[in-house]
Amino acid sequence: MKYVPTVPAARPARMISPINPCRREHGSGAPVARRRAGFTLVELLLVVVLVTIVVGVTTPYFVRSMRGHRMRTAGRTLVTVARYARSMAVLKQADIDLVLNLDTGQVDVTSSNTVLPAFTRAVEGVRMQSVQVEGADPVQEGQCLVPYRRNGLCRPFVIKLEDTHGSILEIKVDAFSSARVIDHDQ
What we know:
four-stranded antiparallel β-sheet; rod-shaped; 1 helix; alpha+beta; minor pseudopilin epsh fold
């Protein structure tokens, strides 16, 4: 037998791998690099920078909104307590006192001539700066008494609330416990 050297047949430029039919190989048999699914470092950094900018811009508005929320909640609490005092005066046909403690921020509804369920609320996050009852001097510390008569009427009064940033909310309550709230921060 005579030895005849054979030349191997040329491979096509791309052929399917016998191990993984979805993977293609170069003519040399080396696997072709495929792009992997995912994000590049530049894309991730871009997203982080955009999120940081959005958070930096919106945080002051969010903080201001929370401050305003505390003031509005305190104002609603005081208006609700005043209306409750009026309702109890009419319902029980008794003289009712609305007691505002400016030092502690506590509001009580009491009566000397009838039995009432204990009713106390605290104004939190803000300070009662002053209470002005019509015909009396303004009270800036201690307790202030607002009397409600058995017909539901009271002497009109004004409560000023102040938060830690100096914003002032003024609540004007008329003789029928209708309230008007004035925000001096806007």
